[in-house]
Amino acid sequence: MRSVPVENINNIVILTGAGISAESGVATFRGPDGLWEGHRVEDVATPEAFARDPDMVQKFYDERRAKLDAVQPNPAHQALAELDQKWPGDLLLVTQNVDDLHDRAGSQRLLHMHGELRSAWCLACGERSPFAGKMALDPACPKCDQFGHLRPDIVWFGEMPYQMERIELALAQCDLFVSIGTSGAVYPAAGFVQSARHYGARTLEMNLDPSEGSLYFHESRMGKAGDLVPVWVE
Ligand SMILES: CC(C)NC(=O)[C@H](Cc1c[nH]c2ccccc12)NC(=O)[C@H](CCCC/N=C(/NCCC(=O)O)S[C@H]1O[C@H](COP(=O)(O)OP(=O)(O)OC[C@H]2O[C@@H](n3cnc4c(N)ncnc43)[C@H](O)[C@@H]2O)[C@@H](O)[C@H]1O)NC(=O)OCc1ccccc1
């Protein structure tokens, strides 16, 4: 399948993972002292874990939410926000990250496929609301005022990621698929490069280390996102 020469790239899909926020001081998942270091994934990021020990899970996400106040977007986030402002064609930035650094950098055409730390989901009224503070304190739902029904607005393992239809449509129409700072270990995100290639897109990876999907990329640039992404956007 011939991939698209650089000059006529109109529609871009960009996928980011924990690696793009590493230089801002946000822990990655699988790196040394990664998030999963202290916790078994299934103990904190599954609906079963939440049913079993909601307080432990709430505290895990309250901790990560509180840490957001101490971190800032880095040059990689800022470069993607600039690209979003100036790119005339279609562009969709799909992030697996639940931090708000892309949002704070100014990215607009942005989709959090695994949810957001700064959002609460009320299981009583079904509404989602912006949320700051500690959910372990059982606060009332900002929409229905009922207590004790809030859960983190996060996609846990075994749960369907958000806006998959919109993502699949963008992958089918993109000319260029770019992956930044992800290990390619978690599906369905890890399968996006193959979908994009299937539809004839050119594929580029920028990562500190080779990822599980590196062989599927036309081009892989190894290094820090904070160095590689601003150069790529220029
Ligand atoms: C472990 C894995 C094998 N398991 C899965 O993939 C499962 C099961 C599964 C589904 N399909 C499969 C097919 C095969 C095998 C398994 C499955 N997937 C699911 O359960 C998904 C839901 C998965 C989402 C779970 N929630 C997350 N996050 C929110 C929670 C939270 O944050 O607490 S996943 C979470 O882990 C993943 C972590 O990966 P990365 O972000 O890549 O981070 P990591 O630390 O691994 O790597 C960092 C990378 O950055 C690089 N790096 C580091 N520093 C830098 C730097 N400075 N610059 C550049 N790069 C850098 C490093 O080299 C490294 O490569 C992210 O997705 C992140 O969001 N749901 C689902 O399948 O539902 C049904 C379904 C789906 C579709 C259609 C119908 C039904």
TrEMBL record:
Enzyme Commission designation: 2.3.1.286
Keywords: Cytoplasm, Metal-binding, NAD, Transferase, Zinc
Enzyme class: transferase
Main location: cytoplasm
Domain of life: Bacteria
Residues that hold Zn(2+) according to the record: 122, 125, 141, 144
Cofactor: Zn(2+)
Chain sites annotated for binding NAD(+): 17-36, 96-99, 181-183, 207-209, 225
GO molecular-function terms, A-Z: histone deacetylase activity, NAD-dependent; NAD+ binding; protein-malonyllysine demalonylase activity; protein-succinyllysine desuccinylase activity; zinc ion binding
Residues where substrate binds: 61, 64
Keyword Mitochondrion assigned: no
CC annotations in GO: cytoplasm
Cofactor info, note text: Binds 1 zinc ion per subunit.
Domain Deacetylase sirtuin-type: 1-234
InterPro entries: DHS-like_NAD/FAD-binding_dom (IPR029035), NAD-dep_sirtuin_deacylases (IPR050134), Sirtuin (IPR003000), Sirtuin_cat_small_dom_sf (IPR026591), Sirtuin_class_III (IPR027546), Ssirtuin_cat_dom (IPR026590)
The record's note on its domains: 2 residues (Tyr-61 and Arg-64) present in a large hydrophobic pocket are probably involved in substrate specificity. They are important for desuccinylation activity, but dispensable for deacetylation activity.
Purpose: NAD-dependent lysine deacetylase and desuccinylase that specifically removes acetyl and succinyl groups on target proteins. Modulates the activities of several proteins which are inactive in their acylated form.
Entry's family note: Belongs to the sirtuin family. Class III subfamily.
Designated name of the protein: NAD-dependent protein deacylase
The species this protein was found in: Parasphingorhabdus marina DSM 22363
Lineage of the organism: Bacteria, Pseudomonadati, Pseudomonadota, Alphaproteobacteria, Sphingomonadales
Gene that this sequence comes from: cobB
